[in-house]
Amino acid sequence: MTNKIISSLGLSVLLLTTTLSAGTIPNPPGPYVGVYKVTETTARISFLDNSTNEDGFKVYIHDQNDIFDATVVPNPILVPQNNNGNLNQYANITNLTPNTFYKLRVTAYNTTGESIPTIASSIQNGRIKTSPPVCKPVMPGEYVGTYNITDTSARISFLDNSNNEDGFKVYVYNATTKALVKTITVDALSGIGAFQYVNIDGLVENTVYTLAVTAFTSGCGESIPTHASSITNGRFRTTSQTTTTCPLMPGGYVGTYNVTNNSARISFLDNSDNEDGFKVYLYDQNTNALITTKTLPAVSGLGGFQYANLTGLNANSHYAVRVSAFSSSCESDKTLSSSLTNGRFKTLP
After folding, report:
1. Across residues 54-71, what is the average pLDDT?
2. Is 74 exposed, middle or buried (0-12, 13-18, 19+ CB in 10 A)?
3. Quick one: pLDDT band at residue 242, thresholds 50, 70, 90?
4. Residues carrying CATH 2.60.40.10, the chain
5. 317 near 347, Cβ under 8 Å?
6. What topology does CATH give the domain 254-346?
7. CA distances from 253 to 46, 66, 132, 172, 317 (A)
8. Which of 89, 124, 125, 238 is the most buried (most CB within 10 A)?
């Protein structure tokens, strides 16, 4: 503020004149800059608008060494001011190079100046790695049919979803041990939408297997693998030559959740199609003393889940759960409780 004295007609008049203060630079946005919907050449970002006086925002694109990347055009990207009533502002990043790291720094600006930039700290927070070039085939299936099952063999089929594969790979796993049993390479198909068929031989009787199938090219690798979800979809059990067969052990992962001070809920996978039911054995984890046994009905088919509620428990106590499958002739091995959320839990105080 400045004072001026003006003399007029013998009178001195004191005038107070005000000098307008300079404008204020906007606050920096963020600090978190979300990164998502990343493709080979594009990405979408969002950041928190911390000002009400910005004219807009600038997104600077740097390389992995945090040096301004002049090969990306435009750079910086001008983003309009945020006046849509949303606390966040959004921007699309384009013209990126496939399979490349970038760091983003975002500022808010107005006619007075520009805020300090945000700091890129991690992937999904101001850092981007674009996707590799699109040359990998699309995942087949994803339904993988299983049928014509014997004690040592099975036949499978799956849909070809690509027209650029050099072939397919079928991975056969022991469902109980998770061990890879064999890998089968299968010829490519012409075009898209046809079915491929594979015979799997040399299997062990009365054993549950799971399958994962990929499409591959010699120069670009394999597609995402299929996921076995149920009997007839990537999961099967070979038959048995013996007349009496015990059910296979369920699980072996036994989920424990919804734990309160006097109850808990468990779930486990059914690995047999010949059980009459299941038995749940509840132990004191500290003493290994058996507390109670609970019988559950069978699950139809193979690959479904069974659930049970455990009640009447003591507060602030450690428990262990082991589960078996049984038939009229015999009982499977019991699962092993190995950790919290896998057969072990502690009730709340």
Report:
1. 94
2. exposed
3. low
4. 33-129, 144-237, 254-346
5. yes
6. Immunoglobulin-like (2.60.40)
7. 39, 45, 35, 20, 21
8. 89
